[in-house]
What does this fold into?
Amino acid sequence: MDRTFIIVILIVTVFTAFLIGYSVPPYIEAGVFSGRKEKGVESKIDKTLEQHYKDLYKTDEE
It folds into this structure.
């Protein structure tokens, strides 16, 4: 085989392995690959943060 073809295959393989290694851990943390019924990560929002988000929808006319 041509040397450049092997180098290209090696670079593509390393890049793909990096992207897979970078994206799989969040799926594992969220439980996508587990057997549990409820998927996702629980997010806790206190009352002040919830009020802040509600205030973002308000317009100047209200």
